[in-house]
Every structure is written in structure tokens, then in C-alpha cells.
Amino acid sequence: MQAMATGWMERIGRIAPTLRLALGPHAGDLALDRRRVYILPTRAGLLFGLVLATMLLTAVNYALALGYALTFLLAGAGLASMLHTWRNLVGLVLRAGRADPVHAGEVAELGLLLRNVGGPERFAIDLFVPGTAQPTRIDVAPGTEHLVSVALPTERRGWQALPRMRLSTTFPLGLWRAWAYWHPQARVLVLPRAETPAAPLPESGSAGTERAGRGEDDFAAIRPFRPGDSPRRLAWKAMARTGGDALLVREFEGGSGGRLQLDWDALPAGLDTETRVSRLTRWVVDAEAAGLSYSLRLPGTSLAHDAGSAHRAACLEALALMPG
């Protein structure tokens, strides 16, 4: 009994590395060697085998020498096509690129690199990605690299791991199907959905109060209205003098004019977590588009006043990773 258990443990130990290779996830480059490529006949291949069996029985029954020759010729062609189908995948090296962050509900584009280090040209390789309707058809010339972009649907904010993908081919005759699984150890950042319709940007100071910043008595200039500007700063006299339709606002020195404080705790108490995240996301996007300086205060995280794409990305990442 103990010997039988030991034997089963040894078999499991030999199978386990193969299962890990098949299921992943796999870090770094993945070379498709013979252990990672599987092959089985297609429906056309099974029908082809049935026809060959019928031809062989007919040749035996009627002692047809030409029937034997044709049967064995076709059988040899079928076996040769099995080798070519298998070799169409073996030897490829796969590498996953990176995907830029997208908002939840949008489609992330992931770059995948297929390298044909050596061997013949690879034809008609289908890349299947879960969540997409159609596979991507790929041909890779000898000694080259082929970059393919695949679409990944997103649903929830936060880090989204890449799904397990499948490469498949029936080249050259369609009698056999070879396939391999690829599960890259990579992920894409999914940003929160921005609130729609957008709530107005808060007044300079905090996200929940309408108070003017210090230093607003120091008038600086008149400039065109930008999204996010307070209606209280509209320069009515200046607009009357110009007689145009353009909105003008007063700009002040020294205070918080144009500086927003987006504060989680200053939002209305009745909002749930996802609504708060969505509203702050919208405000970050709108404040950046308006060229304003803004800070973000979240439970356990605080980002100081700044502006620019790097600050926007840091704020959106902090919102995306907020506990639900």
C-alpha cells in the first residue's frame, strides 16, 4: 500500500511541472517547446481518417493494388501534415508588453510580441483572448518579431490580471489542430469610471464648501473663462465694456485662486464609496483639463497641490486602488 502511494506521488511530481506550464501565470518570455504544444485531429481530420479506413477496407476486400497505394499515400500526407501543424507553433517565443491605464468599461490595448527565433515561416496562427469575439490571425516570418495588439475588456477599477490566452493553428491542411496556452504574469491598471453627468467643480479651498481662498483682494488680471472657474469671479464690468459674448473672470494673486482641494471627507455624507470615487475621478479629469492646480485627500492617502499628467496619473491610480 505504501509502495503504491509512493508511486502515485512520483507520478504527480512528474505531472505537476507540466500543469504549471500549461496553466501559468508565467513571468517573462515564454518559449513554446514540445511540452507546451498539444495536437489533436479536427473534425475534418476525423472525417479524413474515416474515409481512409473505408478505402483500406475496400482495397482489402477487392484486392486493389492501386487502392492500397492511394490509401497509404493519403495516410502519409495526413501524418506529414500533423508534423507541420505541430511545428507551426513549436519554437515561438512569446512576450507580453504593457497596457496603458483605461477607465472601467473601456477597452485596454495590450501589445504582445511573437518572436520566430529559428525555423520556417509560421502561418495562420490564431490568438484567442477571452472576452473578444474574433481571434487575431498572425503570420511570423523566419528570424523576425511580430507585434500584435489585442483588446482587453475591462469592468471594475483596480489591477486587472491578464487572462489566459490560447494560440491555435490548423495549418497546412486543416486536418490537425495544434494549440498552446499562454498566461502572462502581467496586469493592467483600470481607472474608476468618471461620474456622468459631471458635478460642478468645487470652489477653491475644499471639495465640499464654497469659500474663497486667501489673497483674493490682490487683483492680478482679467482672463477668459475656463471650465472649473467659480461663477463668483466673473468680471461683469469687463464683459460689459468689451460688448462680446466671451466670459471673463478675475484672477487674483497669492491665494488659492485656481487651486482646488479635492477632499474625500468633504463630500456629502450620503454618497457611497463608488460614487465618491467616481465623482473625485471626474473632478481630477476636469481640473487637469482646465489647467488648475489641485490636491487630493483620501483616507490614508494625501497628494499635495500640483498639476500635469504625472500628478493626474498619480491621483487616478490612488482612486483606482481605493478599497471598495
Topology diagram in text:
Blueprint: H1 2-23, E1 30-31, E2 38-41, H2 43-62, H3 65-87, E3 92-96, E4 102-103, E5 107-116, E6 122-128, E7 136-140, E8 145-153, E9 158-161, E10 165-169, E11 176-182, E12 187-191, E13 219-224, H4 236-242, E14 248-252, E15 259-263, H5 273-289, E16 293-298, E17 301-306, H6 309-320
Parallel strand pairs: 4-12, 15-16
Antiparallel strand pairs: 1-3, 2-11, 3-5, 5-8, 6-7, 6-10, 9-12, 10-11, 13-14, 16-17
Helix pairs in contact: 2-3, 5-6
Your description of this structure?
The protein is α+β, with helices and mostly antiparallel strands and 324 residues long. 31% of the residues lie in helices and 29% in strands. The protein has 6 helices and 17 strands. Mean pLDDT is 84; it is low at 206-217.
Overview features:
324 residues; alpha+beta; 5-stranded antiparallel β-sheet; 4-stranded antiparallel β-sheet; 6 helices; elongated
- The separation of the N and C termini measures 51 Å
Number of H- or I-type helical stretches: 6
| Largest sheet entry | 5 strands, antiparallel
What overall geometry do the principal axes of the alpha carbons give?
Answer: elongated
Strand content: 25-35%
| Main β-sheet, spatial strand arrangement | 2-11-10-6-7
What radius of gyration results from the CA coordinates? 32 Å
Overall mean pLDDT stands at: 84
